[in-house]
Amino acid sequence: MYEFDGTNDIVFKLMFSDKIVVASLLSSLLQIPVEPEEISLKSNEVNLSTENKSTRFDVRCELFSNKLDIDLEMQKNNPNYDIKRRMIYYLGQLISQNSLKGKDFMENDVCCIFFLNFSLFENNTCVYRFKMVEEESKEILPGATILIIELPKKEFCDKIEIRQWIDIIEGKTIESTNKGMIKGMEKLRDINSDELMKEQLRQQRNRENEDRVNLEATLQIGLERGIEEGRKEGKKEIILKLFKKGYSVEEISFMTDLSEKQINELLNNQ
User: Fold this and answer.
1) Cα dist. 5→126, 153, 178, 195, 202 in Å?
2) Predicted TM-score of the model (pTM)
3) At what angle do helices 195-225 and 228-244 cross, to 10 degrees?
């Protein structure tokens, strides 16, 4: 076990910044043979107009042989915001990337793959595949898929390779002859052998913990005052400070009990 494993989004990105590792993972998840030469790793950021926020993907790639655009995402904590809607938003961003002038509506099919380090659904299932399906006839609209892997439920997964990948992401060392898995474990080992990298990851973790502790303490003080208006003003001040420090509306929503809409309203009223 390592101090930092693949459930950390930065470590996750570094682990899967290699075509051999990504090809092996996709072969296991999509149940099709994928070779490293068929993959193109792309920029992980989409810049939208000033009216919309940008989307930063964890790992984005294109699978040439299947004309498929893929986004790999790691979500460590169960957030306050509606993660199901966030998944649809990310899928929409992939779709918009494939809508080019002078061509068909979608040049490639799209697939968002989310690894969750918590249970989102109640039933005992590890892997979920979502498509747009007509309720009665069960006809499927092609082109878009959301794949969800819940790490805590790996015991319910009947695919051995997927269970092995979950073990690797969680920082376990397994016996394998799979080149992608071996390289993924090597990258995780190298990350945890790099003192500079670990120090940066520790600083990130400390900043996140400090922000949450300070925020919770400040909110608790406001609650103890027992004055509704005081609570609102105190929370408003915190939101403004976080925003000025560079936190996105989504991140502020994650750290508070306010929706992104409420936060935007507070910011727009300044």
Assistant:
1) 20, 18, 19, 15, 12
2) 0.74
3) 160
At 184-243, the pLDDT tens digits run 999 999 999 999 888 988 888 887 777 666 665 665 555 455 434 444 556 677 778 777
Cα–Cα distance measured from residue 4 to residue 130, given in angstroms and rounded to the nearest whole number: 30
Query: DSSP assignment, residue 105?
Result: S
- Cα–Cα distance for residue pair 55/58, rounded to 1 Å: 10
- Rounded Cα–Cα distance for residues 249 and 266 (Å): 11
Other Cβ atoms less than 10 A from the Cβ of 144: the count is 19
- DSSP character string of 194-256: -HHHHHHHHHHHHHHHHHHHHHHHHHHHHHHHT-HHHHHHHHHHHHHHHHHTT--HHHHHHHS
Sign, CA torsion 6/10/11/12: positive
